[in-house]
Amino acid sequence: MQTKAPLPDALAKIAAGRDHIKTSEFAHAVNRASQTVRKNYCLTGECFGIRPVKVGNFLLWPVADTARLLSGGVNA
Fold it and tell me: What per-residue confidence (pLDDT) applies to 15?
């Protein structure tokens, strides 16, 4: 069972109350280039163990999983 990770202040500011964030916002949060995130998604279907939701032409990344990643939790 996964516990809910506390939301880091910087991520809370980026998310602004949303449950999912865009690829550019996710890349900024994990300190990577957007293209790196998209490449990892294309090659493996995930990035850092996080699977996005595809809506139209956008990839939306779950804020809860991103918070878990940033707090040192393991995404499986």
Answer: 93
Which positions of the chain have pLDDT values less than 70?
1-3, 74-76
Q: Are 66 and 31 in contact (CB under 8 A)?
A: no
Helix (H) or strand (E) holding 40: helix 34-44
Sheet containing 20-22: which strands, arranged edge to edge? Answer: 20-22, 58-62, 53-55
Q: What is the pLDDT of residue 1?
A: 43
Q: Where are the domains of the chain?
A: 9-70
Compute, in degrees rounded to 10, the torsion defined by CA atoms 52, 43, 27, 2: 50
